[in-house]
């Protein structure tokens, strides 16, 4: 059947069932009625065929859809059976950190001045806060007892000199008579020896006088160096005794042109402080100002009681604002450790009295012990136990174990993603 015939046949089937007419030889028309009973089975068969095709198509679509849903459900279940973890890469090198510790300010030199003689304070010439120079008289002590001892010593000296003069004359006379039979050699030698003994007595008496006079010089209390008087504990008429070093000093003089600052540094940071390092000071009385200081030396020993290293700093005090005995906050800038690694503090686990981190290696967990160098708050510096290219699991669950299979949800290079992107990724995975 040609294409045109087929189209004509379809049109004929679709045409309304109206009576048709046929021409007769005589020219008259005869109406012919189509056979409706013959067309009804054809239409019913086509409808049934169409319904069968639709049913088959629907059944196939439903079966294939359920199969795909089963595969997706199976894949989703398998993915959720592996716990997800987020990882970050290690950051090489530590950070520069500021260490703030309390310290005490002290004068460069401090002298507690006591009396070397006994007596009464006759006058004092310098009060607290006075600027003094070396040798300036701070106070004068009246020493009547010492004066009496000096007078006695001078009398003893005069007596010794008189005895020496007599011994010299006697020795000379006996020496002149030695060539006669009037004296013996023994007697002459005795007189010469007595002369030498008297000379020694004179020297001893003179030395005693000099000693007492030198002691008398301590009746003037003088400043040992340039500085400022920070304490005066005597007044006119006060009785002072010699050599009371354990008692209260008469005066205290401090050299404050440069100040010493003493800081006990915890043993953890002892190895990071070096001579010559710079530091800054903050004092409560000067909240808007800082002072520069330099580490001069350390005790090079750890105090077994406090486990601290005593560090001494020097600070210039030309303007005199730093006062002995002041409290200060010292700021040290600690250099970074180039060999250390930085990891988030949330990645640290403590198990069996040891710090551990979880490493994601080929989607498997490897637990490693690490040595924490410094806790920086949100980050921790690791001194040993890690390698450069390892990926660290952040916020590891408590149940994580060595060798466990995991699913990495955030690769090392994804740390720059925004929070919205990470959240969107989680929603796509059904999290």
Characteristic key phrases:
six-stranded antiparallel β-barrel, 431 residues, 36% strand, single chain, disordered C terminus, four-stranded antiparallel β-sheet, conserved putative lor/sdh protein from methanococcus maripaludis s2 fold, alpha+beta, 31% helix, 5 helices, rod-shaped
Structure, explained:
This protein is of the alpha+beta class and 431 residues long. Among the domains are: 111-232, no CATH class; 339-425, Beta Barrel (conserved putative lor/sdh protein from methanococcus maripaludis s2 fold). Helix content is 31%, strand content 36%. The protein contains 5 helices and 24 strands. It has helices at residues 3-14, 36-81, 144-177, 185-217, 419-428, and strands at 20-23, 29-32, 84-89, 91-92, 97-113, 119-124, 131-132, 137-142, 220-222, 227-232, 239-240, 251-266, 278-283, 286-302, 308-316, 327-334, 341-344, 349-351, 354-361, 364-369, 371-375, 379-384, 391-394, 407-410. The strands form 6 sheets. Strands 5-12-15-14-13-16 form a 6-stranded antiparallel barrel. Strands 4-17-22-21 form a 4-stranded antiparallel sheet, with no helix packed on it. Strands 9-8-6-11 form a 4-stranded antiparallel sheet. A hairpin with a 5-residue loop joins strand 1 (20-23) and strand 2. Helix 3 (144-177) packs antiparallel against helix 4 (185-217). The chain is rod-shaped and about 195 Å long. The protein starts with a helix and ends with a helix. Residues 5-25, 28-33 and 411-431 have low confidence and may be disordered.
